From TrEMBL:
Pathway membership: Lipid metabolism; fatty acid beta-oxidation
UniProt-recorded name of the protein: 3-hydroxyacyl-CoA dehydrogenase
All residue ranges annotated as the 3-hydroxyacyl-CoA dehydrogenase C-terminal domain in the record: 476-560, 595-676
Organism in which the protein naturally occurs: Sphingomonas ginkgonis
Pfam families in alphabetical order: 3HCDH, 3HCDH_N, ECH_1
Top-level taxon of the source organism: Bacteria
Family: Belongs to the enoyl-CoA hydratase/isomerase family.
Statement: the UniProt record of this protein carries the keyword Zinc: no
Catalyzed reactions per annotation: a (3S)-3-hydroxyacyl-CoA + NAD(+) = a 3-oxoacyl-CoA + NADH + H(+)
SUPFAM superfamilies: 6-phosphogluconate dehydrogenase C-terminal domain-like, ClpP/crotonase, NAD(P)-binding Rossmann-fold domains
GO biological process: fatty acid beta-oxidation
Protein's cellular compartments: Peroxisome
Oxidoreductase as UniProt keyword: yes
C-alpha cells in the first residue's frame, strides 16, 4: 500500500506532503510516514529545511478517532511529535483548513508555523471527553501563553489564524500560495540556530498569576458542570507552569489515559460519529441532487416564524415573511431586529452584518408573494384546519418544484400533504425554540415526500448550521413523542408523593438543563390546555385555572421572583395534596431511583418503540435529537447510548418493578428482545 505521506525536494527544502482524505487524520500510516520523512531529512546533507503540509481541504484535523479503543499501532503520536521536534533541520508547518487536536500538536512540534488567514487552529479533544495527549497541553501554553491555552484546551473552540498570529502561535500569515510561501519562509530560516523548540520555551510560563487557574475555573463553572475533561485539561496546563516539560508530559499522559478509559469520553466519541451519521438518509442514493434554494418563504412572524427566518437571513438566503395583520408583521420583524442587535451588542455581529441580514428580509401581507420562493415554511399555530387551509392556498400559489414545509411539532404531515396536488413536495421541518439558536432540526419524512426534497432539507440544514435528523410521521415525531411518557409519569409521581422540586432535581443531577416541571413552566403550562377554567380534571388544569401558566405569569409549578428564580410553591403543594385526597392515592416516600425508572426508563422504552416502528432511522439519531433538542448531557451519549451503558436487562427489570403503578404503560417489543438477547441499541 502506498504511504499517504510523500516527500520531494525543492532546492534544499524537503517538502513533506500528506494525502489522507477526507481530513488528513493522523492514522498509523500517516504517523509512520512522518517519522520516515524526518529520518530522511536528517540523513540527507543536501536538505537544509523541511516543510510539512497537507493536500485536500485541511491540515491534519487530529488523531484518527476511529483508532481509539483499538490496540495501539507504533509509532504513537507523542513519539511522532517528539521526532519532529528533534529534527536537526528547521521544520515549518504550512497550515490551511483546520489544524486540530493532534494536528495542532504536530504543528507545535515543528519549529515554525505559517498559515493562511482562513485557517483555524484548535484543540477540540475536550469535546471528545479527552485532552491533547501528544504534548499539546505542555507545548501550547509555552508557545501561546497560559490564558489562551486554557481557553483552547478546556473550552475546545478553535481560534482563527489572525488571533493565533497575534498570540505567537503562528509565525507568519501567508497571502497567496501557501506552499510556495512556506518554502520561501523555510529558506529564510534555514540557517537560524538554535532552532526554536516549543517544549523548552519558558518565557510565557513565568508571567502567570497564581490565581489564573481558579479564576478560570470559576468563570466557566456553569459551562463545565458535570464534565470530567475540562478540569483535567486545566490541571495539565497548570502542570506545565509547575513542572519541567518531561514531568508535565507524564501528568498529561496519566490524565489522558484516565479520561480515555472513562465512560464520558466513550459517550462523546460515540456522539461525534452519531452526529455525522444523522446526515445520511436511508434508501436515498448518493446521486440524488438537491433542489436549488435561493429564496425562502415563511408564513407567520411569531416567535417561531421569526426565529426560523433568522437562520436563513444569517446564512445570506433572502426570506419573504408573511403575516395577516400589519401590526403583527411589524412586531415580528421588530423582534428579529432586536435579536440581531442584541447579538451585535455582545460583539458577535457587526452593525453592517445586522443590516445585511435584515436587508434580505421582505415582510409582506400578501400570500401571493410566496410564488417566487423555492421553499415555503408554514409556522402558524398548531391547528390542523388552519394548516390545511394554508396548504390548500399554497398549492395554488407556489411555483412548480417549490418545497412546502410545515413547522408543526405534533401534527400529521401526510394529512397536511393530502390537501395539495403535490404531496411529494411536502415535508416537515420541525425547528426547536428559540429557532435561531437551537441546533436541532427534525426533518419529517411524509409517506410521499420525494427523495430530492429530503436531500435538499438535509443539505439546507447544514447551510444554516443545524444538525438535521430524519423522523417519520407519528405524534410528536422523535423528540416530543419521548416527552409524553416522561410528563405522564412526572405528574403521576406528584400524586404519589414526590414534589416538583424532587423530580426536577433528579433530572438536573443527571445533567439535564432542567427537569419536567421547570420545562413546563418555561414553555408555558397552558400549552395544549382546553382553556376552560371551570373544567378542572387534573393538577395542570388546576394550575391553569388560577393563572399559574408558568414563568410568563411569574407562577407555575414554582413561584418566581422578579429575576425568574424558582421557589417551591405552597399553593401548588396544596393543589397536589387536594388531588391526592380526591383520587384516594396513598402518599408515600418516592426514591430518586423510582423517579429515574418512571421518567428516564419510560423514555428509553418510548425511543425503542420509535425505532421499532421505523420512525427513526437508527438509534443514534434519537440520541442526536435529545442531545441537541433537549440538552440531554452529551457525556451520557443520549438516551439510547445511556440505556446501553445501564444495561437493557436492568432497564427492563426497573420498568417491570414499576409496571403496576403505570397502568397505561406498554413495553416495546424491541427493548424486551434486545434485553433478552443481551444486545445493545448502539455500537
Ligand atoms: N478521525 C477520523 N475521522 C474523522 C476525523 C478524525 N479526527 N475528523 C473527521 N473525520 C471524518 C468524519 O467522521 C467524516 O466521515 P464521514 O464522511 O464518513 O461521515 C469525515 O471525516 C468528514 O468530516 P465532517 O463531516 O466533520 O467534515 P467537515 O468538513 O464538516 O469538518 C472537521 C471537518 C472540522 C475537521 C471536523 O471533522 C472535525 O471537527 N473533526 C474532528 C477534529 C478533532 O476532534 N480532532 C481531535 C482528535 S483527538 C486527538 O487529536 C487526540 C490527540 O490529542 C492525541
Amino acid at each position: 500500500m502506498t504511504s499517504p505521506i510523500s516527500t520531494r525536494k525543492h532546492g534544499d527544502v524537503l517538502i513533506v506532503t500528506s494525502n489522507n482524505p477526507p481530513v488528513n487524520a493522523l492514522g498509523a500510516a500517516v504517523r509512520q510516514g512522518l517519522v520516515a520523512a524526518m529520518e530522511q531529512a536528517d540523513g540527507d546533507d543536501s536538505v537544509k529545511a523541511v516543510v510539512i503540509h497537507c493536500d485536500g481541504q485541511t491540515f491534519f484535523a487530529g488523531a484518527d478517532i476511529t483508532e481509539f479503543g483499538k490496540p495501539p499501532v507504533s509509532p504513537w503520536l507523542p513519539e511522532v511529535v517528539d521526532r519532529i521536534e528533534a529534527t536537526t533541520k528547521p521544520v515549518v508547518a504550512a497550515i490551511h483548513g483546520t489544524a486540530l487536536g493532534g494536528g495542532l500538536e504536530v504543528a507545535l512540534a515543528c519549529h515554525y508555523r505559517v498559515a493562511v488567514p482562513s485557517a483555524k487552529l484548535g484543540t477540540p479533544e475536550v469535546k471528545l471527553g479527552l485532552l491533547p495527549g501528544a504534548g499539546g497541553t505542555q507545548r501550547l501554553p509555552r508557545v501561546a501563553g497560559v490564558p489562551l491555552a486554557l481557553e483552547m484546551t478546556a473550552g475546545g473552540n478553535p481560534i482563527g489564524a489572525k488571533q493565533a498570529y497575534e498570540a505567537g502561535l503562528v509565525d507568519r500569515l501567508i497571502e497567496g500560495d501557501l506552499l510556495e510561501h512556506a518554502v520561501a519562509y523555510a529558506h529564510e530560516v534555514e540557517s537560524v540556530r538554535p532552532l526554536p523548540i516549543s517544549s523548552t520555551k519558558q518565557d510565557k510560563l513565568a508571567a502567570v498569576e497564581a490565581s489564573t487557574f481558579d479564576d478560570f475555573r470559576k468563570a466557566n463553572a456553569r459551562k463545565f458542570k458535570g464534565f470530567d475533561a475540562p478540569e483535567k485539561n486545566i490541571q495539565c496546563v497548570e502542570a506545565a507552569t509547575r513542572l519541567p516539560y518531561a514531568e508535565g508530559v507524564k501528568t498529561e499522559r496519566q490524565l489522558f489515559m484516565e479520561l480515555m478509559s472513562g465512560g464520558q469520553s466513550r459517550a462523546q466519541q460515540y456522539f461525534f460519529f452519531a452526529e455525522r451519521q444523522a446526515a445520511k438518509i436511508e434508501g436515498v442514493g448518493k446521486d440524488v441532487q438537491p433542489r436549488a434554494i435561493n429564496r425562502v418563504g415563511v408564513i407567520g412572524a411569531g416567535t417561531m416564524g421569526g426565529g426560523i427566518s433568522m437562520n436563513f437571513l444569517s446564512a445570506g438566503i433572502p426570506v419573504t415573511i408573511v403575516e395577516m395583520q400589519q401590526d403583527a408583521l411589524d412586531r415580528g420583524t421588530g423582534v428579529m431586529r432586536k435579536n440581531y442587535e442584541a447579538t451585535a451588542a455582545k460583539g458577535r455581529l457587526t452593525g453592517e452584518q445586522v443590516e445585511q441580514a435584515m436587508g434580505l428580509l421582505n415582510p409582506t401581507l400578501d400570500l401571493n408573494a410566496l410564488g417566487e420562493c423555492d421553499l415555503i415554511i408554514e409556522a402558524v399555530y398548531e391547528n390542523m384546519d388552519v394548516k390545511k387551509e394554508i396548504f390548500t392556498k399554497l398549492d395554488g400559489i407556489a411555483k412548480p418544484g417549490a418545497i412546502l414545509a410545515s413547522n408543526t411539532s405534533y401534527l400529521n404531515i401526510d394529512e397536511i400533504a393530502a390537501v395539495t396536488k403535490r404531496p411529494e413536495d411536502v415535508v416537515g421541518l420541525h425547528f426547536f425554540s428559540p429557532a435561531n439558536i437551537m441546533k436541532l432540526l427534525e426533518v419529517v419524512r411524509g409517506a410521499k415526500t420525494a427523495p430530492d426534497v429530503l436531500v435538499t432539507a438535509m443539505q439546507l440544514a447544514k447551510r444554516i448550521r443545524k444538525v438535521a435528523v430524519v423522523a417519520g410521521v407519528c405524534y410528536g415525531f422523535i423528540g416530543n413523542r419521548m416527552l409524553i411518557p416522561r410528563q405522564t409519569q412526572a405528574m403521576q409521581l406528584l400524586l404519589e408523593g414526590a414534589t416538583p422540586a424532587q423530580v426536577d432535581k433528579v433530572h438536573t443531577d443527571f445533567g439535564m438543563p432542567m427537569g419536567p416541571f421547570q420545562m413546563a413552566d418555561l414553555a408555558g403550562v397552558d400549552i395544549g390546555w382546553h382553556r376552560d377554567p371551570g373544567r378542572v380534571e387534573n393538577i395542570r388544569d388546576a394550575l391553569c385555572a388560577i393563572d399559574r401558566w408558568g414563568q410568563k405569569k411569574g407562577a407555575g409549578f414554582y413561584d418566581y421572583d422578579e429575576k425568574r428564580r424558582p421557589t417551591p410553591s405552597p399553593v401548588v403543594q396544596q393543589i397536589i395534596d387536594d388531588f391526592r385526597a380526591k383520587q384516594g392515592v396513598e402518599k408515600r416516600e418516592i426514591s430518586d431511583q423510582e423517579i429515574v425508572e418512571r421518567t428516564l426508563y419510560t423514555m428509553v422504552n418510548e425511543s425503542a418503540k420509535i425505532l421499532e416502528e421505523g420512525m427513526a432511522q437508527r438509534a443514534s439519531d434519537i440520541d442526536v435529537v435529545w442531545i441537541y433538542g433537549y440538552g440531554w448531557p452529551v457525556y451520557r451519549g443520549g438516551p439510547m447510548h445511556w440505556a446501553d451503558g445501564e444495561g437493557l436487562p436492568k432497564i427492563v427489570e426497573g420498568l417491570k418493578a414499576q409496571q403496576e403503578r403505570m397502568p397505561d404503560f406498554t413495553f416495546s417489543k424491541l427493548l424486551l428482545d434486545k434485553a433478552e438477547k443481551k444486545e445493545k441499541f448502539t455500537r
